[in-house]
Amino acid sequence: MSVLCLDVGNSQILGGIAGKDNRVRQLFRKNTRPSGSSDELGIFLRTILRENDIDPQSISNIAVSSVVPEINHSLRGAVSRYFKCEPFFLQAGVKTGLKILVANPPEVGADRIATAIGASHFYSGQDVIVVDLGTASVFGAVSSKNEYLGGAICPGLRISMEVLQSATAKLPTVEILRRTQALGKNTIENIQSGLYFGHLGMIKELSSRIRQECFADRPVSLIATGGFCHLFAEEKIFDAIEPILVLKGIFQAFLLNQKT
């Protein structure tokens, strides 16, 4: 069995493959927009599989989490035509293995549920805070009892940089990177420092508050995931860095929903 797992985010589509060993490996990142037609999506997926030495005919299923509803119809068409199967979408009504303890469970994004599923499976029996550093920086709290407790959403690093550039007359777009000193000596360093240390401080503050509100004095694992998760690795604030936790969660959700 080979399952193609797709996380359709606001900025990028992340794709990976799960095989007989139940492990997931990343294959690609693709800009979400323009999404293209169902034919363009289908041809892209078959091509990227071949480029990774995977026979498209070996794909038995495709599992998806999506926060971009307008793409879902084209994606369904692509899977049906080019892979001859019905995709599994992580959405309201499917089994997750979680108790979603929020005011309105259906409004929680599929990607957030996927990362929570991944956290509850791979860190079973632990209280976990997941920090997904992508387009937005998203926090989620998952208890040792597989309860999704809620979270927080902040502008991500790239959004912050783009807004700063677009809303000011003279500030340039800069490369987002790790800074070792807070005090910049030129405009670019000033922006990079503000982005890096501002985000670092936000991560520390929010994770500390969530820890106290949800878990009191119990041990908590702080897990980083998402496109920018490695940026803060040298700060040693995370207990683990899981770049594709969302894909692992999508695959676990797929397995949970298979008929026995």
Task: Give descriptors for this structure.
260 residues; alpha/beta; Nucleotidyltransferase, domain 5; 2 domains; 6-stranded mixed β-sheet; globular
Shape: globular
SS field, number of helical segments: 6
> In angstroms, what separates the terminal alpha carbons?
15 Å
**How much helix is in the residues?**
25-40%
SS class: alpha/beta
- Supply the number of structural domains: 2
CATH superfamily of the largest domain: ATPase, nucleotide binding domain
CATH topology of the largest domain: Nucleotidyltransferase, domain 5
| Radius of gyration, in angstroms, nearest whole number | 19 Å
Largest sheet: 6 strands, mixed
Strand content: 25-35%
- Count of DSSP E strands? 11
Q: Which architecture name of the largest domain does CATH use?
A: 2-Layer Sandwich
The H/E string reads EEEHEHEEHEEEHHEEH
Low-confidence stretches: none
Strand order of the largest sheet: 6-9-8-7-10-11
Instruction: Give the CATH level 1 class of the largest domain.
Output: Alpha Beta
What integer is the average pLDDT?
95
Polypeptide structure, described:
The chain is 36% helix and 25% strand. The strands form two sheets. The protein has a six-stranded mixed beta sheet, sandwiched between helices. The chain folds into two domains: 2-89, Nucleotidyltransferase, domain 5; 99-249, ATPase, nucleotide binding domain (Nucleotidyltransferase, domain 5, 2-Layer Sandwich). The chain has helices at 38-51, 69-83, 110-122, 157-166, 187-215, 245-256, and strands spanning 2-8, 12-18, 24-31, 59-66, 88-89, 99-100, 127-133, 136-142, 147-155, 220-225, 240-241. It is built from six helices and eleven strands. By secondary structure, the chain is an alpha/beta fold. The longest helix is centred in the C-terminal third of the chain and has 29 residues, at 187-215.
